Amino acid sequence: MQLRYLFILFCLLSSLNSRAHGDLHKRITNVTEEIQKNPDSAKLYFKRGKLYYQHNNYENSLEDFKNAKKLGLQSAEQDFLIAKSNYHLEKYSKSKRLIKRILRKESINVRALKLLADIYFKKGGYKKSALLYEEVIYNSKVTFPEYYLYASQAWRAANTMDCFERSQSILLKGLEKLGDIIVLYDQLISNYIEIKDFNSAIKFQEKVIKMSNRKERAFLRLADIQIHKELFNEAEISITQAEENFKKLPHRIRNAKFMREFYSELQLKKSSLKNRIR
C-alpha cells in the first residue's frame, strides 16, 4: 500500500513538473511574440531570459541576458543569473569573475557567496569553498541543514586531519543550532567510520537510535559499525533489535518492496555474523 502511495506521489510530482515545463514553454512563446512586436525592449529580453533559465536552457538564457544588457538593462539579479547560467554550463571562470564583481558591491550577498563556494568546490579549492560555506551559514537569516553538510564535505575533501576536525566541528555546530537533524548525524558518523574511529561512530549512532521513531535501520547500521570494530556479540544484539523493531511494524509496511529488501539484507548479515561468531 505504501508503495502505491509513493508511486501515486511520484506520478503527481512528475505530472506537476511536466506541466510546469509545458507552462514555461507557453510563456516563452508568448514573450517571443511580444519581442517580435517590441524588438528594442530590454525588459522583454530579460523576462524571456529568466524563463529560459527556469527551463534549464542556459545557452538561450545567456543570449537573452546579453541582448538585454546591450539594450541598456543593468540589474544585480541579471548579473547573478548570468553567473548561474555559466556555472550550469561549467564555465566556472566566467561565473567566478561575475560573482566576485557582485561581491565587491555587496560583500554579504548570501546567494553569491554560496555560488562562489560551489565553484571553488568544483575546481578543487576545497578550503576556500569550506570557508565560503561557513560565511553563508553565518550570514544567512534562515540556515538550512545542507549548508552545514556542504561546509563539512568541503573540509573533508581538503583531506588533512585539521580539516577533518573542522568538518566534524561544523556538523556539531549545525546540530547545536538546528537541533537533532538526522542527515547531520549521518554525515558525522560516516566521517568517523571513514577514519576508523568506530568508538565515536558508535556513540553518535546510539544517539540516532534514541531519537528515531523507526529504529530498525538505525540498529542495523549500529551492527555494521560494531562488525567493523569486531564487536560481534554486540552486533548480534543490534541485529536482533533491528529484527524485533521490524516485526513491530504494520503488515502493509513490512510487505512493501523496499522493506522486504531491508529484511533480506538483515537476514544475510545475521547469517554471516553467526558464521563469524562460530
Automatic annotation (TrEMBL):
Keyword entries, A-Z: Signal, TPR repeat
Cross-referenced Pfam families, in alphabetical order? TPR_8
Repeat positions for TPR: 42-75
Asked if Cell inner membrane is a keyword of the record, the answer is: no
User: What SUPFAM superfamilies would the database entry show?
Assistant: TPR-like
UniProt xrefs under Gene3D superfamilies: Tetratricopeptide repeat domain
List the InterPro entries hit by this protein, alphabetically. TPR-like_helical_dom_sf, TPR_rpt
Q: Which domain of life is it from?
A: Bacteria
Give start-end of the signal peptide.
Answer: 1-20
Name of protein: Tetratricopeptide repeat-containing protein
Protein source organism: Winogradskyella aquimaris
